[in-house]
Amino acid sequence: xxxEKRPPTPAPRRLLEVDFLRGASILVIFWNHLLLLVQTxxxxxxxxxxxxxxxSDSAAIFVFFSGFVSGIVYDKQLELKGFVATQVKGxxxxxxxxxxxxxxxxxxxxxxxxxxxRGSLDSLHHQLxxxxxxxxxxxxxxVSLQSCLDYVDILPFYxxxxxxxxLTLLGFRKNPSWTLFLSASVYLSMQVLRALNYTLWMxxxxxxxxxxxxxxxxxxxxxxxxxxHSLGIRKSKPLAAFAFAVVLFSFLKIPSIQSLLVLHFHAxxxxxxxxLAVPFIQKDLLxxxxxxxxxxLGYLGWMFAPQFxxxxxxxxxxxxxxxxxxxxxxxxxxxxxxxxxCHFVVKAGGSAWSFLAGGALGWCAILGASxxxxxxxxxxxSALTPADGQSSSAxx
Length: 396
Prior knowledge:
Number of helices: 15
Oligomer: single chain
Largest sheet: none
Helix content: 55-70%
Shape: globular
Order of helices and strands: HHHHHHHHHHHHHHH
């Protein structure tokens, strides 16, 4: 077989650093969602407990690396078994995600039925009331994924994204430039033509799938390139300096950091800086500044990737890695815990201490579940040892 036709050599090991980042993202998403639910109930309105790192957030990290893993796993399937088998694999995974979404909704609605008190679970109770008034239409909305609860709308996006992965990879194999151009065009259309607002027919979806697909597709492309040993991201000092400036600026705009700066550097003109409005940072549409910040953060992460890889193989990182490797299951567990722990935080008075206790308890539960998966009877070492390039199955 000629070298040009030889399949790419399988990657020599699993990407534990990717699994670590996905696992850590799930924990951060849980923490911030729990805080938002408590704030929705009327408590901790000026809380300093939200985990910030600038304009973008952990959801962007999670979506990007889910695309990255999909690019590795499904490209191998496409190469070995062809497009039809790869599409079937995508359908099966989409079915798993769809089932997980319905099961999660069912558990949450059951919680609302068992806990009739108002306040902490208002959105769940509203869902119950709507279902009681319009059982047929609400039931169809739940089954068709048009109806979602707050913070439970990311899995429907993955159902759509995973179904398009085989076709996307086929496009990368044929003409990567045009495939990326098509994805970018859809993204830009959503930024410019706001009349194409998907909320007219998907009002419960917070994440705009037409905008966020570009992040997933970019991750898929880099996963595809990584598997073919041609990632091609060059290290540039000027570009790194620009990325650092963007990240630093976004960090200084975090409300808690602003308050400290204004307090200590009032004479230096910091109040004017703190009051400077930053446009185009909305998360729902993945607006350009939000997207740019994530790209800059990712580029800096790429610059320091060799040092981070060593950390991902330590015993301390292992629970986070396992969370990332079982992302679908533990994301659903985290979603249920958000609502359940919000209920008890509110019942405890919604104080800062009750929130911190609830958040810590939730983290312990998620990490504990990951270690329970690690200590299953079947051999577990293969999850953290060199493999054939599949870091883990993608959530979507």
